[in-house]
Write a structure and sequence with these properties.
Elements: H1 12-27, H2 33-47, E1 53-60, E2 63-71, E3 77-79, H3 83-91, E4 95-97, E5 115-123, E6 126-135, H4 143-159
Antiparallel strand pairs: 1-2, 1-6, 2-3, 4-5, 5-6
This protein binds methionine sulfoxide.
């Protein structure tokens, strides 16, 4: 049995190093996208403090569609270029938002969200989707979170060839 609990470390880089190792172990030997995405979201949500949402949006048919997550029920479809997730996907870059109310076009799925971090998931030159974290605390995420989540995203992509069992056009 794998029991994930909040990890307390003096420094975030150390926390994310341990979390990346834990994620690699958790996903080892499994390539099913839904299983791996569900476990990745659960591990992140159970270990990182001060989150109200953690999960995946998948690129399907040219738009983002919600995937496995932890938190309140979420918006299902997001157009590329819309909101924080759609912008991160369209521009294929991590977006960190200290105050979601100040981000033009932010999509409020959970009214409790105050800050957000969205990391694109890219395999080779193929965009698979995004990994999205929300927090009820303004400016919850810093550069260490950004780097740490990019490392977790890389572990996920290396273990999981796709985020869909349908052909990506
Ligand atoms: N806030 C996101 C939408 C997804 S939810 O936060 C789960 C956005 O603006 O894209």
């Amino acid at each position: 049995m794998f029991v994930a609990r909040p990890i307390k470390h003096a420094a975030k880089p150390e926390l994310f190093r341990d979390l990346a190792a834990a994620l690699a172990g958790l996903l080892a030997g499994e390539t099913d996208w839904a299983a791996n995405a569900a476990n990745t979201a659960a591990l992140i949500f159970a270990t990182l403090p001060d989150l109200n949402w953690a999960g995946f949006y998948r690129l399907l048919g040219g738009e983002l569609v919600v995937g496995p997550f932890q938190g309140q029920p979420a918006c299902v479809r997001i157009a590329l270029g819309r909101g924080v997730c759609g912008t991160a996907a369209a521009e294929r870059r991590t977006i960190r938002v200290d105050d979601v109310d100040a981000f033009p076009g932010h999509i409020a799925c959970d009214a409790a969200s105050r800050s957000e971090l969205v990391v694109p998931l890219i395999a080779g030159d193929r965009l698979l989707g995004v990994l999205d974290l929300d927090s009820p605390t303004p400016a919850r995420f810093d550069a260490d979170d950004e780097a740490g989540m990019a490392a977790l995203a890389a572990v996920f992509v290396a273990a999981t060839p796709g985020l869909t069992d349908r052909a990506i056009p």
